[in-house]
């Protein structure tokens, strides 16, 4: 006991708390995934049922579609906004403050607001588009299987791009002014500065942001569940919502646990591959 470092005693309460809140639930979920409703060992039966379900392939596609689409547009909008907010113009501080509104608005509030805006009959989006002649009749953004996922991606991109913009702006603040002056001497324009100075300097920031956005999108449930609940016809159903529905609406906790384990492995593979690709690029 006397040879134990004092630091261990300081970190021990945190480790015990993490074990109670993370490790135990994970082990409990793993146990549920290999048992039946009576607690008897079921082997891989729950996993086989989850994998062979007709909706699993569609849900996997929806999840990948939603995550990739959200992250791409969040990055594009965030990088563009961050670069613009780094320029000098009148009212820049006010614009920077207003840009944070989508990010700080609670997810459920944003979801309900956008659900009203996308409403087929009373939504402001259809009203404006019909008034200016873009469309001839209202579009069922949230009821049409072909438009529901792009609409949800747009909501998620609107919600999270300010975070990317703030991180990009912070990264640009640390870029030495001498780099800009050097390329300007060589005759570079603004687009050259973006491509050859800003984006290379932002690369470490963008790598971290991309990983965070991917994890958040993979765990995202508020926007989709609040707006569509996974419909219509499972066209906006993603894995987190399916796990929730399986457990707390159908009360099939064992199959929900099996889905959770599969989804955990799926996320782990994505993160490991992403980090390995980034590490390989760093070595090059």
UniProtKB/TrEMBL annotation:
GO biological process, one term: transmembrane transport
Domain (ABC transmembrane type-1): residue spans on this chain: 60-274
GO cellular component terms, semicolon-separated: plasma membrane
Pfam families per record: BPD_transp_1
Transmembrane segments: 7-27, 64-85, 97-117, 151-172, 205-227, 256-275
Subcellular location(s) of the protein: Cell membrane
Presence of the UniProt keyword Ribosomal protein in the record: no
Keywords carried by this UniProt record: Cell membrane, Membrane, Plasmid, Transmembrane, Transmembrane helix, Transport
Membership in a protein family: Belongs to the binding-protein-dependent transport system permease family.
Protein name: Sugar ABC transporter permease
Source organism of this protein record: Sinorhizobium mexicanum
């Amino acid at each position: 006991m006397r040879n134990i470092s004092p630091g261990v005693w300081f970190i021990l309460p945190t480790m015990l708390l993490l074990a109670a809140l993370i490790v135990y639930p994970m082990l409990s979920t793993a146990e549920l995934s290999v048992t039946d409703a009576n607690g008897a060992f079921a082997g891989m039966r729950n996993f086989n049922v989850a994998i062979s379900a007709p909706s699993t392939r569609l849900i996997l596609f929806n999840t990948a579609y939603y995550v990739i689409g959200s992250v791409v547009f969040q990055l594009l909008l965030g990088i563009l906004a961050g670069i613009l907010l780094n320029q000098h113009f009148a009212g820049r501080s006010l614009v920077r403050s207003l840009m944070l509104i989508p990010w700080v608005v609670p997810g459920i509030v944003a979801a309900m607001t956008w659900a009203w805006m996308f409403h087929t009959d009373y939504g402001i989006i259809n009203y404006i588009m019909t008034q200016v002649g873009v469309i001839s009749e209202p579009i069922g953004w949230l009821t049409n299987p072909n438009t529901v996922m792009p609409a949800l991606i747009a909501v998620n991109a609107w919600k999270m791009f300010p975070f990317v913009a703030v991180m990009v702006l912070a990264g640009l603040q640390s870029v030495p002014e001498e780099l800009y002056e050097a390329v300007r001497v060589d005759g570079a324009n603004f687009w050259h500065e973006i491509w050859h100075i800003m984006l290379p300097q932002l690369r470490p920031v963008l790598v971290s942001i991309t990983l965070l956005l991917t994890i958040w999108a993979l765990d995202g449930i508020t926007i989709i569940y609040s707006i569509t609940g996974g419909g219509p016809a499972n066209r906006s159903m993603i894995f987190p919502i399916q796990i929730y529905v399986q457990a707390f609406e159908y009360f099939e906790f064992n199959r929900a646990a099996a889905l959770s384990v599969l989804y955990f492995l799926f996320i782990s593979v994505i993160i490991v591959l992403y980090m390995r690709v980034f590490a390989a690029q760093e070595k090059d």
